[in-house]
Amino acid sequence: MHATESTNITSDLIAPARWARWAAHVAALVALPSGLWRIGLALGFPLGYTDQGLRELVGSTMWGPVYLIALSMLTEVAAMLTLGLVQRWGEVAPRWFPFVGGKPIPPRVVIVPAWLGVAVLTVLWTPFLFWWTLPHDGMTDLGHALVGFLYLPLVAWAPLLAAVTMSYQRRHRR
């Protein structure tokens, strides 16, 4: 495919609405507070846990901290994928991708995983609306409240992703 063909592909696409861009950027940030908190735990800061609670959460091997850091990074990368629904790399594969670089991405390849993501995120994070009603034995009262507020933005991730996915889907109707 020539550069002019690639340019024609992207010029035929409808630009995302301003609200969709805003929502995608907010979705990319909702995982940050809880991720930073988990990284702090991995580094040995109690951050709302009692000493015993922190030992039980992190464990006594290096795998507990590695898991917490990996989970934080994976969660943030997943959140940042929402940006692909409003940016060029969600419509045309970046040139550095082997075999598909510079080629248009079929909308279904983006839309289906995005809707699956909405479903998974809804199941995963909606229960955090009830965080404060559940006891957490290894935490201090202040830590329990703090963690609730750090995880609360994740509840917004699924509706934000749904809105941005709907916008992407509408823009790519054929």
Structure description:
With 174 residues, the chain is mainly alpha-helical. The chain has one domain. It has 8 helices and no strands. α2 runs antiparallel to α5, α2 runs antiparallel to α8 and α3 packs antiparallel against α5. The chain is elongated. It starts with a helix and ends with a helix. The N terminus is likely disordered. Keywords: Membrane, Transmembrane, Transmembrane helix.
What is the structure about, briefly put?
This protein is 59% helix and 0% strand. It has 174 residues and is an all-alpha fold.
List the helices and strands and how they pair.
Elements: H1 3-11, H2 18-29, H3 32-42, H4 51-58, H5 63-80, H6 107-125, H7 141-151, H8 157-171
Helix pairs in contact: 2-5, 2-8, 3-5, 6-8
- Stretches with pLDDT under 50, minimum 5 residues: 1-11
How much of the sequence lies in strands comes to under 5%
| First-last Cα distance | 22 Å
Helix percent band: 55-70%
Radius of gyration from the alpha-carbon trace, in angstroms: 20 Å
Largest sheet: none
Mean pLDDT score, rounded?
89
Overall morphology: elongated
Structural class, by secondary structure, is mainly alpha
| Number of strand segments | 0
Name the helix and strand elements from N-terminus to C-terminus, one letter apiece: HHHHHHHH
Tally of structural domains: 1
What's the helix count? Answer: 8
Keywords: Membrane, Transmembrane, Transmembrane helix
